[in-house]
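Sharing a chain and its predicted structure for anyone who wants a worked example. Both blocks are below, sequence first, tokens second.
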Amino acid sequence: MNHRHFAAWLLAAAASLAIQSPAAAARSAADPGPPDFSAEFPAGIACSNFGLRLEVWEGQGRTKELKDRNGKLRSLHIGHGGSFRYTNMLTDKQASSQSHGTLQLTTTYEVDGSQKISFLGSVLLIWFPTDIPAGPSTTFFDRGLLVYTLSPDGVGTMVRSKGESTDICAALS
């Protein structure tokens, strides 16, 4: 899976929070049911030494597209994030995380095809070996701020991050 494809998947996953599925509305903490979507990443892509399986249960919220006075398009999503389960595909060791509070995702689309992405709240970020700084890494940011850019060819560049975070690869090692 290349960066552009994954970035599109990540943004689609975040945007999918905009519509709460019937399954999301019906689930309980004790029995979350099947995940709303999942992905598998081979060793060296999301974690250095093992493949990672990611399962996601959607949250809920709303998305709105806005244009500023210069015609620049922005997408704003506000809602509650979902929950995640991570599996080390080599050992089957698992960990999970739950979004807390409100999530705000703002994507600004630049004329050159790049994007600036800002998250406030809980978010999962998978960083690849070709990103800046280089991955692989998988980090869950809880109650924090995450800002990065995404080039037209799919390379992510970290601008800033702060708040509580968990290194998922280390937790599963």
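Comments welcome. The longest helix spans residues 3-15.
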